[in-house]
Write a structure and sequence with these properties.
It contains twelve helices and five strands. It is mainly alpha-helical. It has a three-stranded mixed β-sheet with strand order 3-5-4, sandwiched between helices. It binds zinc ion. The site of zinc ion has 6 residues, from helix 5 and helix 9.
Length: 268
Amino acid sequence: MKKYQTGLFVVLIAGLLLLHVCSLVPLTGRRQLSLVSDADMFSMSFVQYDQFLKENKLSTNTSQTNMVKGVGRRIQNAVTTYFALNNLSQGLNGFVWEFHLIESEQVNAWCMPGGKVVVYSGILPVTQNETGLAVVMGHEIAHAVAKHSNERMSQALLAQLGGQTLAVALQEKPQQTQELWMGLFGVGVQLGAVLPYSRLQEGEADHLGLIFMAMAGYDPNSAIEFWQRMSQNAGAKPPEFLSTHPSDANRIRKIKSEIPEAMKYYKK
Ligand SMILES: [Zn+2]
């Protein structure tokens, strides 16, 4: 009986803990597990990003580099406007935006927490032009502003360290915590083992990405063609971006259904 009561007590405490740390995210309208503060998340991200830039070769192609920076700025401005319009501006506190094109055959792109974007030159043949690039950058930036990485890190902490906050985990088990982080965002170590986002998060990033690109002045209809081109790239060894972003008929159908909403934001 005593054992049973203790068990119940533990479950109750765990429940209370989860209730406390699940915050409602206005941008997505759903509850996200949040064991990590933005400040902690961003400081790890910024260090990792600088390290990545040191270890990888920046593109020497001036016009492509300018395109990446230009599209990035336009989407950044769209995001800032969207957040202001929806009274969400504080959700962007601490963001320090950066956009870099690196020389690499990898078909890939990502945005680390706090607005740190990298585009690999290998994805440019698939994006084809500025609008195609805006599809990818809008999507990756949407993951970052919807705090999807915070959610993933929190889920990993809960699973492996019993729901310690990042601050506590870093103090008590720095090695294990670093390994968790590298497993999720190990872009710098080139393991190629970065965990994909969940299907739910992918859907949110597609949806928000369409709105951001439209507000930035890019026709969201181009997203359909981009994802079709990406899926045609699936060969024996699918590109990194495709392996984390399965471009199946369902995804394309869902994007199609969201285009009319995004078109309301579209300004040429
Ligand atoms: Zn994604």
